[in-house]
Design brief:
Length: 204
C-alpha cells in the first residue's frame, strides 16, 4: 500500500465527513424554518385532459395544504386558552389568481372558518371544541387531527371558461394567497405560493 494511496483515502474520508456535516446543517436549518414559519405545501395542479376545443370549459383539480407553525399551534389546548379570552373564530381568507401564460385571467376567493364552542358531546373528552366551516358547510370533527385536515387541507375543482382561453397552447398556473389575523395562538400573516404549470392545447 503506497503512501500516496493512504493520503488520498484520508482526504476522501475527510471530504465525506464535511459533506455529512453540511447535510446535517442544511436539514437543521430547514427544520428550523418549517418550525417557525407557516407555508403552503403539497401543491398539485392537474388538468382533466390534454386538449380542448373552442366553446368548452377547461377543468383542473387543485390540491394544497397549509403547514408549519399555524397548523402546529392549532391544538385543543390552544383552543381552550383562546376561548377563555373570547377569541372564538379563526378566519382564513384564500385568494386564487388563475393565470394563462403568466397573465391573471380570473380570481376566486374562498373563506374557511374555525369556530370554537362549549360542547357537552359525550364522544368528545373536552369542554371546548370546534366547528369547521368550508364551502359554507359546517363540519364537526371528532379528533384534533381531523379538525386540522378540514381547515388546512384543500381540494378544489377549477373551471375556466372558454372565452378566457386562446387557440393554441395555454399555460395555466395559479397563485395561492392565504391570510389570517392575529389570535391568541398565532400572529397575523400572509403566505403566497405558485403552483406548477399545466399546458392545455385548445383547437378550433
Amino acid at each position: 500500500m503506497s503512501f500516496a494511496w493512504v493520503i488520498s483515502a484520508c482526504i476522501y474520508k475527510r471530504q465525506l465527513h464535511i459533506e455529512d456535516i453540511n447535510d446535517t446543517f442544511l436539514v437543521s436549518e430547514l427544520s428550523k424554518f418549517n418550525k417557525n414559519e407557516s407555508f403552503i405545501s403539497d401543491i398539485v395542479l392537474k388538468k382533466s385532459s390534454e386538449k380542448s376545443t373552442i366553446g368548452n370549459k377547461v377543468i383542473l383539480s387543485l390540491n394544497f395544504a397549509i403547514k408549519g407553525i399555524i397548523r402546529e399551534a392549532f391544538s385543543q389546548k390552544n383552543w381552550e386558552k383562546a376561548y377563555n379570552k373570547h377569541d372564538n373564530i379563526l378566519r382564513l381568507a384564500i385568494k386564487l389568481d388563475i393565470k394563462n401564460n403568466g397573465q391573471t385571467i380570473e380570481s376566486k376567493k374562498l373563506i374557511r372558518k374555525a369556530i370554537l364552542f362549549w360542547t357537552r358531546n359525550p364522544r368528545i373528552q373536552h369542554r371546548i371544541w370546534i366547528t369547521i366551516v368550508k364551502d359554507d358547510n359546517p363540519f364537526y370533527p371528532l379528533e384534533e387531527e381531523e379538525a386540522k385536515n378540514l381547515l388546512f387541507d384543500f381540494q378544489k375543482e377549477i373551471e375556466i371558461e372558454s372565452n378566457k382561453l386562446r387557440v393554441g397552447k395555454n399555460k395555466i398556473s395559479i397563485t395561492i394567497n392565504i391570510s389570517w389575523g392575529t389570535h391568541d395562538y398565532i400572529e397575523k400573516n400572509e403566505i403566497i405560493k405558485e403552483t406548477n404549470i399545466e399546458e392545455i392545447e385548445v383547437a378550433k
